[in-house]
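Following up on my earlier thread - several people asked me to post the actual chain instead of describing it. Fair enough. Here it is, all 396 residues.
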Amino acid sequence: MSDLSRRNVLSLGVALGLVGAASVAPAWGATQAGSAADPWWVWDDEIDRIMAGILEAGQVPAVNTAMKSWVDNNDPLPGGLPADLAGYLQRVHKLPSWADPAKLRRAADFNRRKDTYLFMLYGLGSGIMSTVIPREAKSVYWSAGGADMQDRAAKTFTFGYDLSDLNAFEPDGQFVVTANKTRLVHAAVRHLLPQSAHWKAVADERIPISNGDILVTFHSLGTYVHRKLREWKVPMSAADEDAFLHMWQVAIHLLGVREEFIPKTWAAAHAQSAQVLTPILSPSHEGKELAEDLLGLTAQIDLGVTRGFLNEFVRYVLSDAIGDWLGLRRDYASAALIRTAWPAYIAFREGLIPVMPAGFAMFDQLVRALAMLFLNKGTSPTTTPITIPTGNRPGA
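Reply from S.P.:
Thanks for posting it. Predicted structure:
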């Protein structure tokens, strides 16, 4: 890495608040590259093998049709699935033995109490950050979902909505089913993308969506949100923070991440994030296209603010460096308003100041609009089904 790129990474890390001490222990202990102890070389072998067979046999449309009726966590597995897939789902369709129901219920309540900030951070923070995670951006862009970002965003909203729901992990919730369907999609993409000449030309990996990649995505979501809530001085009890982490620990376990790689504490999560997320953030052609698509979709909703305001809020929650990478045009009046009014908005909502600040109504309208976009999953009040793809981006 050149001195210039080192400085860029350090500057971005400082801007994001993710750079830790140089003496931080390796993110998942001492590992040998390419070994089973290295998450970048761990995928999801059993379901990868099963899904490759289903794709090669042309059975995906039948599987998608069968799984339409599989929605709630306590729904029986649908009939008509290939025997090996049905056997696999029967074994994995459950919470891990270490899942704590009380913590999961507390996390659900925390999501409800802090949903104002979560909508903003997941939508305008994590969503746009994903476009400067090169592997993720390239995998999304060249997969089938990259060609229809409204549908792709709606399915992402479905995952986030089901995870944040009050009954997410309860029998009448839907997240365990949603996680398993997402796991099948990941397995399909791992089989399909290596067949794309376009993806292979830009990828620095042989197979996408390793355990390491999923952990990076977790840090761009859960760890990032936790850090921003602390940075914004949003009141949280230690029990709330622990429950929020536990929710994410269970979620990434359900996506196939091995337990030895899952951070046990927020301190470990932030240390891991500083090593595996911050240094890899960078622009790409694919990421710029995706960011413009996502912000364009958001701008189509009546948010009550200008596109310049959206650009500046992205810069505020991420950094000017990322805003520059994505070519987000400046709106300095909006920037000044956000930097003074958003902290006051939080303080008033949390009962820390007695007088409603200027700009409160505008922020409230923005939050409500983003909430409706989230609750409607990008399209309509009905669930957007998560379906297994049969190919890559058209022409890829």
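The chain is about 60% helix and 0% strand. That should answer part of your original question.
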